[in-house]
Design goal:
The chain has one domain: Arc Repressor Mutant, subunit A. It has three helices and four strands; from the N terminus they run ββββααα. Strands 1-2-3-4 form a four-stranded antiparallel β-sheet, with helices on one face. 33% of the residues lie in helices and 14% in strands. Helix 1 packs across helix 3. It is α+β, with helices and mostly antiparallel strands and 110 residues long.
Length: 110
């Protein structure tokens, strides 16, 4: 698999090939999400969104920053981003009411 595309946060800053949080690991070289060493299926846009979240943590990332990073050359409504966040939360077993990994900060971002 290819490395993250231009515009994704992983190309703005240097990181190791693997980003770890809880039982999860993002392998940037292979563009894979692992849970306890086992692959988790994650579509490209939610994967890129998760990479941004992990690399920017604990900083709040604005919706506009995410839209610019994930969809740099096309117009996408907030709904596209919201669907990525929903998919990420589902795969991570996270809850918007009691977040462990992805917290929504009203009027600021994630």
């Amino acid at each position: 698999m290819a490395a993250p595309r231009a515009g994704v946060a992983s190309e703005r800053r240097k990181f190791d090939e693997n980003l770890r949080f809880g039982p999860f690991e993002l392998n940037l070289t292979d563009r894979r999400l692992l849970r306890d060493g086992h692959p988790v299926a994650l579509a490209p846009k939610p994967y890129d969104t998760l990479v941004c979240f992990v690399q920017e943590a604990p900083r709040v990332v604005s919706k506009q920053e995410l839209l610019n990073a994930i969809w740099p050359d096309i117009f996408v409504t907030d709904d596209g981003l919201v669907q990525c966040v929903v998919e990420i939360r589902r795969l991570l077993g996270d809850s918007p009411r009691e977040p462990r990994y992805v917290e929504t900060v009203p009027r600021r971002g994630y």
